[in-house]
Amino acid sequence: MPAGPILASRVVPWRFRRLWARRRAGLRSTGRILGIGLSRTATSSLTTALGRIGYKTFHYPEDERSQEEVMGFLASGGDRLRLSVLERFDAATDTPICATFEALDVAYPGSKFILTTREKQSWLESCRGFFETWIDPYLRDQPDDPYARYIRALHEKLYGSAGFDRPRFSRAYDAYHEQVRAHFRQRPADLLTLDICGGEGWEPLCEFLGVSRPRAEFPWINRLPAARG
Hints:
single chain; alpha/beta; Rossmann fold; 9 helices; globular
């Protein structure tokens, strides 16, 4: 039947592209690419860029299984966490990864980490707007929703507050970045710090992963008219 060859012609090139991208990055079979930048630091842009290079990337793991695995880890602790989505994906990004990156590092040896950053005052303003318009009302109106509990647990872990609190978020921003720097102090080659909001894009990312720069413009997702976001 013709469906078989047609399907193969669509699937095989993508698989070869993923294999090529992983090998060029020097990723071992156990390794993944983990985006550990806090929310509102262009994590959607990073996710899209990784996909265009050739990596199958999951932005903000929030499926039921991921919620169970992350919530269980946050409740019980430990030094190792495996996520089911990383059995099918090459990369994952955003808050669930930030809150667990040290344990993921143990579980996935040979991984590479990308810390997206943003000028702190700009980040605080972006968080304030995002939380005031969506997060805070949702947590207030749906306190018992499983996803609300997931968000609350992640934010308590990272920021010390489920909702937006500027002084706490400011302190958490500094503490988190120091935590990342300390973790990778003896392994600088495993960490890329990338300021997408400040204009960085393909060059540092592709150099870090050992791949050629795509011809397409770097993907600016959720970009504001007067600024990159």
